[in-house]
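Hello again, I could really use a second opinion on something today. I've been staring at a protein lately and its backbone has me curious. Please have a think about how the structure follows from the sequence. I owe you a coffee for this, so here goes:
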Amino acid sequence: IEGEKALQFGLLNYLVPHDQLEQETVKLAEKISNSAPVAVQLTKKAMKISYLHDLASSLDMLAGYQGIAQRTNDHFEAVQAFEEKRDSNFKGF
């Protein structure tokens, strides 16, 4: 499937020209690396194992992971930073 078609079908979140791919990839990697580490770890784990389970089981697992992530100091830091309109300072716990 060509890129434009994949985007129209909803298979992509966004499409960038080939000459901007590396720059956009670095930007996305930086955004992920600046995110809350526990949330990123749980997201990666969920993505790796979700294909092994049915939808209901995957949703149950994700609900549990969300409960874990919402009880971290990083979650409360993100909420406070949002309210104060500043960047978050994540510590990884």
About this structure: The mean pLDDT is 93. The radius of gyration is 17 Å. The longest helix spans residues 55-69.
